[in-house]
Amino acid sequence: MVLIQNYEDLHWSFLHQISKTLVKEDEVENAVKEDLHNRDYSIPVSENRVEEDDSIPVSKNRVEEDYSIPVSKNRVEEDREEDHYELDNPIPVGFQFLPTNEELVTEYLINKILHNPLPFWDFSEVEEAALYSTHPKSLVDFVNGEKKWYFYIHKDKNFSNNSIRKVENDLGFWNLKWCEEIHDTKGNKVAFNNHFVFFSKRDKKTHWKMDELQLRPEWYKDFNLEN
Description:
This protein is of the alpha+beta class. The chain is built from eight helices and seven strands; from the N terminus they run βαααααβαβαββββα. A seven-stranded mixed beta sheet has the order 2-3-1-7-6-5-4. The longest helix has 29 residues, at 10-38. Residues 9-25, 41-56, 62-71 and 80-87 have low confidence and may be disordered.
């Protein structure tokens, strides 16, 4: 199993969202100021000035106009309409899939190998040769703005033992940076996490990263399975 990540636009996206929110609030504030500025609260100089002042006090009329259509209330109602979703939707709005490495191994990878029922979420299957046949951006889908993608990988011995894994057509290579052990809830060592970074064909480090979660060889022996 591998987790491919792209951090290229992460900070930009975060700042963009903050900027977009501030602009939206500024637009509302400016609209209110402009509206108040454009309203005619002057009192015509005429013989009826006193009568007009007594019949329709300017200060009272201004307050009534200001609070007749509260901007903040309208914004809340509009936001609620936009954020509305059906209650029977199995995935709530704002839900994010953020499993730990332990959960990926014990709940997904092991159950996948043993043909056991899998949790609600499932991943695509990719041959390891296909994984290293193209640039990582060609393997993933950016439709919903994802930054992480998960795949089940069919291992190929031509790649598995190499710390540097070249991508076809000289597009670049994956370089193993470090490896760490993964433990289950009982503290048993069950897998390894091999952390790779993608370099372009000019040996330039990119924002693409990959975590390869691989079960320990001893685990396969316990279940009489071939590694």
